[in-house]
Amino acid sequence: VQLQASGGGLVQSGGSLRLSCTASGIIFSSTTMGWYRQAPGKRRELLAGITSGGISTYVDSVKGRFSISRDNAKNTVSLQMNSLKAEDTAIYYCHTEGRRYNYWGQGTLVTVSS
């Protein structure tokens, strides 16, 4: 199983980025996908998740700014991030887990300059 994340980079405060994560080796359409982030010196936190049926949930800190989506035909989950703030600077990870599996992508760095 491989989760390949991309799309990170440097952006100014107030800007936008779109992260993507392409999965291989799993039945993507049947699994819940999530995006996490870990800022320097902080714990990894769940930001958003999307079920196999397309139901999405968000942590309060990103509601209204971030949007998670999936394309089952391309085995891809995306995170559209708008109105970025300096405190959004972190390494972002995609993730999936089930009863017998737990997989992480390699992480992609997002840096928001103020």
In short:
With 114 residues, this protein is mostly beta strands. The chain has strands spanning 2-6, 9-12, 17-24, 33-38, 45-50, 56-58, 66-71, 76-81, 90-98, 101-104, 108-113.
Q: pLDDT average, as an integer? A: 96
- Unreliable stretches (pLDDT < 50, length at least 5) are none
The helix-and-strand class reads mainly beta
- The amount of helix comes to under 10%
- Overall 3D shape: globular
Q: N-to-C terminal Cα separation, in Å? A: 37 Å
- How large is the radius of gyration? 13 Å
Order of SSEs, N→C? EEEEEEEEEEE
Tell me what you see in this structure.
The chain has strands spanning 2-6, 9-12, 17-24, 33-38, 45-50, 56-58, 66-71, 76-81, 90-98, 101-104, 108-113. The protein is mainly β and 114 residues long. The strands form 2 sheets. Strands 2, 4, 5, 6, 9, 10 and 11 form a 7-stranded mixed sheet that branches. The protein is globular. The model has no long low-confidence stretch (mean pLDDT 96).
Essential attributes:
114 residues, mainly beta, 7-stranded mixed β-sheet, 4-stranded antiparallel β-sheet, 55% strand, globular
